[in-house]
Amino acid sequence: MVSNVFTGTMPALMTPCTEGRVPDFDALVRKGSELVAAGMSAVVYCGSMGDWPLLTDAQRMEGVERLTDAGLPVVVGTGAINTKSAVALASHAQKCGAVGLMVIPRVLSRGSSAAAQKNHFGEVLSAAPDVPAIIYNSPYYGFATRADLFFELRAEHSNLIGFKEFGGGDDLRYAAENITSKDDQVTLMVGVDTEVYHGYVNCGATGSITGIGNALPVETLLLGALSEKAANGHAEARQRAQELTEAIQVLSSFDEGPDLVLYYKHLLVLNGEQEYRLHFNTSDSLTDAQRNYCAQQYDLFRKWFADWSNQGGVIAECM
Fold first, then answer.
1. Containing H/E element for 302?
2. Cβ neighbours, 10 Å, residue 113
3. Which ranges of 106-216 does DSSP label H, i.e. alpha helix?
4. 20 to 30 A from 221, CA-CA: which of 46, 116, 122, 123?
5. How far apart are CA 164 and CA 172, in angstroms?
6. Any idea what the Cα angle at residue 300 is, between residues 298 and 306, rounded to 5°?
7. pLDDT tens figures, 9-35
8. pLDDT tens digits, residue range 228-258?
9. pTM of whole model > 0.90?
10. What does 47-98 look like in DSSP terms, one character per residue?
């Protein structure tokens, strides 16, 4: 039986780049190590946050190798236009000792075909049969995996153990109601930062994959811990988790838009991490207004958190 590694909070690592616009793998490993040391259960690489469409397969594999060679627990994204590439990435992940696989739908070519997606998912899962895997559901990939397809795949692939839902509150509810609540061997990961509380409390999620956690690991881990307690009926934790969710809402909402990587790299720059200043496409940048708004909201949240986090009780217990 394949073990379930999909619990706790996992940051979706971004790929820092050098002045020459190539991946800075030394910085990638430093960041991954820092976040695991802070309490993250694993790191995810290359999902959307890792800029997978802008990297070559060789670059993606090198990033995975560098992270696993550093002893970090790594969940590998398999996004690709060509199923052959996704299969190669999955096979490489198993060879490197990755702890998990995030199986992303086939994009562009026949992306709306359920039959094509079943074949794609099946080939990727077969390429890494010993690696626990979750299907990544996101409207950005143009295909919604429904319950019938999920269970057809699960009947054929024992390593498929769960679902990552990035579609928002209603989609999380669908996943919980129709897929992950069928038995306790199927797990749900929250895939969007705005829905952590809802995912844990109302949908039975066992963990989350986070973008904002790259910049705010302590705060993100605290939200997960409070939400987990709230899901077990802890009244004070429920109140505190809702307060933290509301306060971090604007920063979390960057996760829902097309500029999510630009925003979260900018937050790291505000933290002093200059290796995240550049993007692989030279024209990719926030506007002056976006940068100012981002900085204002970041400053507001950090001031609020410094005051709120001193109130003791379940907050102190979970920090």
1. helix 288-308
2. 13
3. 114-127, 147-156, 169-175, 196-203
4. 46
5. 9
6. 100
7. 999 999 999 999 999 999 999 999 999
8. 999 999 999 999 999 999 999 999 999 999 9
9. yes
10. SGGGTGGGS-HHHHHHHHHHHHHTT--EEEE---SSHHHHHHHHHHHHHHT-
Q: Say which residue the tokens 């999920």 belong to.
A: 150
Say how many residues make up the chain.
319
- Write down the residue that tokens 């990939």 correspond to: 141
Q: Are 35 and 67 in contact (CB under 8 A)?
A: no
Q: What angle do CA 266, 243, 227 make, to 5 degrees?
A: 90
Between the alpha carbon of residue 37 and those of residues 8, 10, 41, 42, 286, the distances in Å are 14, 12, 9, 10, 30
Tokens of residue 299, six digits: 């400053």
Q: In terms of C-beta density within 10 A (0-12 exposed, 13-18 middle, 19 or more buried), how is residue 287 classed?
A: exposed
What are 27's two structure tokens? Answer: 């910085």
Tell the residue number behind the tokens 């429920």, with chain if given: 238
